[in-house]
Write a structure and sequence with these properties.
GO cellular component, one term: cytoplasm
InterPro entries: FHA_dom, SMAD_FHA_dom_sf, TIFA
CATH topology: Tumour Suppressor Smad4
Pfam families: FHA (PF00498)
Organism: Thalassarche chlororhynchos
CATH architecture: Sandwich
Largest sheet: 7 strands, mixed
Strand order of the largest sheet: 2-12-1-11-10-7-8
Protein name: TRAF-interacting protein with FHA domain-containing protein A
Low-confidence stretches: 154-161, 166-177
Shape: globular
Mean pLDDT: 84
Number of strands: 12
């Protein structure tokens, strides 16, 4: 047997790709502390925190309008499943966090869809999960967008835009359909 045949099987790693956009990035450089060059490993038992407090947050946003801890991501495995997921929690008392069409208040949390847009203030983050098998850690790979993510996601849509000016195609519904409720119920 050769050393290639004896080598252990390499397991794939779950990777969270995050593309960041802010309209004043060129002027204010609020992403200057983020590492856009390479993937970073995060231990599975660590909570990935985003905010302006460099003593607490792994991912720092250099903006006084961002909360000390804006939001956190927790890596976990679903019960009775081999599927790995992320849970996103709003840690800001002042700013609501919007994940696709779901608005999260302080300490509210939901499962992060496999592909979604996270918004707070003027920040837009496209999050995409690349599935893997490793249980001890996951990776993050950060990207910087040149154009607004919401604008970029809306351009290819040929659907009519409703009168309120918000196109539902900007926010993937992840299989959720509207529910009609009688106002007397």
């Amino acid at each position: 047997m050769t050393s290639f045949e004896e080598a252990g099987t390499e397991e794939t790693v779950t990777c969270l790709h995050m593309t960041f956009y802010h309209p004043y990035q060129q002027d204010k450089m609020m992403f200057r502390c983020l590492n856009f060059r390479k993937r970073e490993q995060v231990r599975a038992d660590e909570m990935a925190k985003f905010g302006r407090d460099s003593n607490v947050c792994r991912y720092n946003l250099m903006d006084s309008r961002v909360s000390r801890i804006q939001f956190s991501l927790q890596f976990y495995r679903k019960l009775n499943s081999s599927e790995f997921c992320f849970e996103i929690k709003n840690m800001s008392k002042k700013t609501k966090l919007i994940v696709d069409q779901t608005e999260l208040g302080y300490l509210n949390k939901i499962d992060l869809p496999w592909k979604c847009i996270i918004c707070f203030g003027d920040y837009q983050i496209l999050a995409e999960i690349q599935e893997g098998e490793a249980m001890d850690y996951f990776e993050t790979h950060l990207h910087l967008a040149e154009v607004p993510i919401l604008q970029e996601r809306c351009l290819p849509s040929l659907q009519p835009i409703p009168e309120n000016g918000i196109s539902s195609s900007c926010f993937p519904s992840q299989g959720k359909s509207p529910i009609e409720i009688d106002e007397n119920e």
